[in-house]
Amino acid sequence: MLRALTGRFRRALPRLTPRRAIAGSAALALVAGLTGWAVWPADPGFTFQDRMLTVRSGPTGDEPVMLDTRYFLPDGASETRKVPALLLAHGFGGDMHSVHAQAERLAAEGYAVLTWTARGFGRSGGQIHLDSADHEVKDAQRLLDWLAARPEVRLDAPGDPRVGALGGSYGGALALLLAAQDSRVDAIVPMITWNDLARAFLPNAAGGPVADGVFKKAWAGTFFSSGASGGASGGGASGGASGSPGGGPSGGVPGAVPAGLDPACGRFAPDVCAAFQTIATTGRATPDAVAVLDRSSPARVLDRIKAPTLLVQGLADTLFPLSEADANARGIAANGTPVRVAWYAGGHDGGAGPRTDRDRVDALTREWLDHYVAGTAGTPATSFVYSRVAGFDAMDRGLVTNAYTIADYPGLTGEPAVAVGVAGPPQRIANPPGGNPAAISSLPGAGSALSFVLGAAVSDLPGQHASFVSEPLADALDVGGSPRLRLRAASPTGEAVLFVKLYDVDPDGGGTLSEGLVAPVRLTGLPATIDDAQPVTVTLPGIVRRIDEGHRLRIVVATSDQAFAGPAAPAVYTVAVEPAVSLPVPGGTPIASPDAVWRWVLAGLLAVIALGLAAVLLIARARHRRIDRSVSAEHADTPLVVEGLRKEYADGFVAVSRVDFTVRRGQVVGLLGPNGAGKTTTLRVLMGLTQPTRGEIRIFGHRLTPGSPVLSRVGALVEGPGFLPHLTGEQNLRAYWKATGRPWADARFEEALEIAGLGDSVHRRTRKYSHGMRQRLAIAQAMLGLPELLVLDEPTDGLDPPQIAEMRRVLQRYATDGRAVLVSSHLLAEVEQTCTHAVVVNKGTIVASGPVEEIVGDSPTVQLDVDDPAAARAVLDGLDGARFLAEADNGGLVVDLTGTPRRELVAALVRAGVGVDRVVPRRRLEDAFLALVGDNSRGSGDR
């Protein structure tokens, strides 16, 4: 056998000739070469080395500290081919590994890149001083010295490397502070960083001194816990250079404090630790604590920054919002230094942002560095760039953003602005004792994503918030910046801590708090009554958001927030909001996305598809002209006539062999059959969901064709109910009816609801419906317009017994006034009680059809209700023409009479002293069904 097969195989192969051998060898060589090229690792274009460097810093400049460093060198860099350099700093709680991917990209672009683990983190020594000028900034200066000594690094002067500095969050502040302290820095790109560290952690949206700020306890606690262990938890509390969470050190026990350190402070310097402990304990800042944070604030040295600055700030950032970049931009631009501001849809709560924004930020960064550091590109623009979320990517379901540019940076509250009125009376709200329970608007690193995790928990608590709402917007607003409003408050203690929020409320009442951003306000010197209160201006966090037409604004003023420290003493405040909220709408010119070229490709594909569809439509129209549109006068008043129906698939499977039946007005016809008998296929053909192989279907005399107008006289539930979960039942029904192109007045909505028995549930969102309610809604959808023929596939599927009984009444009520129902069901008892007629299908053919009572027929089996079942069985054993079959559910006896008349059976029982209460026929539709289809009733499977 094997030899025969081998011979056949050899004969099937072409004969090997020298020419074929050479061609085959060349093809194999080409395939091997392509495969090797595909799998062989590409040259990255750089190398890197790790080393521990000892630098001297501190107030006197002679304190040694070991820094863990990694140096990336592009290929070809040498003493004769010098390259520009970059210092790339990581985020708080991370280390040099956090920025490895960005360093690789920059090195591949031709830069020598030095990354390092900041003092107090990972394997580096020293303590954390929060980017102080005497410690972290001097450390960076010593690294500049090291770069200046490298033979492959380009110099502007002896000891002055051609260098840029960039980083995110902690690293971004370092870039700002380093540029202010060391003029050798040629350009900087600080990302998602701060301006004033004291105000960042003690904000007050109503202005005033830092001492009146509201402590951002959640973020401060996250920072402190991460720094106390030197980043040993393996995750950064803030972003890396790209805005993504910083990675952990190369080793260490998660959450462990290094040996020999005070567990209360860990690797923090004593004065930094004391400042945190003081603020965390009291919720207020002391002058000493403010002084510690001030020395780490770029705000005090902005006037000394001469290096061109690209400021990138995240929209999804409850730690360092847009106001921090705004203050930095204004302070640096006042020196005449080139400044560019870019907002993107990421940040401490949003990571690196959507792919479209990552590409855009990378392009802006390269453009900035290539000009001001490498000198290989033209002068970049200083125009303002911002992003707005536009939707979801069809490929990976990630967010997609659109970008806009404005020639001059407008600031957060710049013109133009739109005033939107909000209404609501003065309201009394309570501050809970101990500040608990508190509303949850955001969590560190989560921001607005928290709402997807906690759902309804992300809300304002009853009794603890006041609400002021606008009318629906007549036109959409593209907000970009910080909304402002005027607030009045009264307090019996003379002081109040409040949290102001702006919600975008959709027409269904669902509110969205952009990125979880909240404006904390501490007000002092308040009167006891609201009539005596003076208004104060509250500046909300900057947002970029489109508020659609028909949406409302809701201003919420709350007394508590889990992310902030509030007063512990219980109190009741009264608050009021002035009628108008000012919303900045900067506008701007759209910028093409980096992948805009694909839009042209997509346009070409769409054009090809459109031409193809046009050709298909022309062919379909030509075929449509040939379709038989004749109306059979004989069946013009008959809802449904099926003649010779056959459905055979391409693989030869015959789902329906031959089906013939008729549904007349006033009838409820049950379509019965075992699994695989062809019921569902028959219904699919009836509704035009699939085409028959042969046969004819006429609806009110019209031959059924795809898109036939006569289908408007048919309602159907065949493929199961499918509704949009965020819409109410009524909205789903309206959307369905609108898709039919018919006026709503023709829907007979109220009548369909009454027949289906939906009641007030039709006004609830369908995601809250039970399975039974969805079935009722599907029935109501099929009944819209009160079609003359209703076709239903398993309408009682998943319903409980009371719902099944109600559905029975629904169908019987519907088949009045000349309407008809065709229903497929496997519940034979329900069909027997509901349907007037039945059609039994087995293996694709009709085995019985007609009135249900005719199909059931006379019964040779009876049920006896007697007072003594045991004695009755003894009598039955002595009769030749009667056979006991089973006990009935009520205790009676089921008997098969094979020759004994019923009267003789009753007489025999009475003679034996057995009381006979009732003798009734036993046969049911189920019995007739089993007799018709037999035990071997399983089909080949419906399709």
From TrEMBL:
Belongs to the ABC transporter superfamily. InterPro entries: AAA+_ATPase (IPR003593), AB_hydrolase_fold (IPR029058), ABC_transporter-like_ATP-bd (IPR003439), ABC_transporter-like_CS (IPR017871), Galactose-bd-like_sf (IPR008979), P-loop_NTPase (IPR027417), Xaa-Pro-like_dom (IPR000383), Xaa-Pro_dipept_C (IPR013736). This is ABC-2 type transport system ATP-binding protein. Residues 640-868 form the ABC transporter domain. Gene3D superfamilies: alpha/beta hydrolase, Galactose-binding domain-like, P-loop containing nucleotide triphosphate hydrolases. Residues 234-255 are annotated as: Disordered. SMART domains: AAA, PepX_C. Coiled coil: none annotated. The chain crosses the membrane at residues 21-40, 597-620. Keywords: ATP-binding, Hydrolase, Membrane, Nucleotide-binding, Transmembrane, Transmembrane helix, Transport. PROSITE patterns: ABC_TRANSPORTER_1, ABC_TRANSPORTER_2. One of its GO terms (molecular function) is ATP binding. Residues 234-254 have a biased composition (Gly residues). It comes from the Bacteria.
